[in-house]
Amino acid sequence: MSTAALPALKIRPLAFADNADIARVIRDVSAEFGLTADKGYTVADPNLDALYQLYSLPGHAYWVVEQDGRVVGGGGVAPLSGADADICELQKMYFLPAARGQGMAKQLALHALEFARQQGFQRCYLETTAFLTRAIALYQQLGFEHIDGPLGNTGHVDCEVRMLKAL
Q1: Which InterPro entries match (predicted)?
Q2: What is the pLDDT of residues 103-118, one digit of tens each?
C-alpha cells in the first residue's frame, strides 16, 4: 500500500484575513479537548475574533500554519499581562489534527521564542492543562520548566500547568 505525501505546511505571519480562520481552529481544537469558555480557556478570550489586531501591537506576534492555502494552526507570543516587563507569554498554540505530528508546533515555538529574544524579553511563560501531554512534552524539550504558582493575569483559571523558560 502506498502512502501519498502530506501537503506541505508553512508558517507565515497572521494576516487580517486570517481572523475568522484561526478563531475557528482555536474553537475546534478547544472543543476536541473539552477546553470550554466557562473554565477560562482561550475560547473565552474576548479578542479571539480579532487576533490580528491584538498581535499587531508592539511586542506581540502571531503566526499561522497553512496547508494547501488553509489555516490549520497557529501560535504567538506577547508581553505577559500583569507581570514584569521582561516576561512574555507563549500563547494560543493550537493545531488541527492534520497539522500535528509534523514538527510544526516545535518550529513555530522556536520562531516565537526567537522573536521574544529580539524584543528584549528575558523569560517566557506559558500555561496549559495536564491532559495535553504532547504539548507539555514539547515545552519540556524546548527547555521550559514547571513552576508552582501562576505569573501575571492570564485569566486561564483552569490551566494548572505553568512553565517558564529563560531566554
Answers
A1: Acyl_CoA_acyltransferase, GNAT_dom, NAT_camello-type
A2: 999 999 999 999 999 9
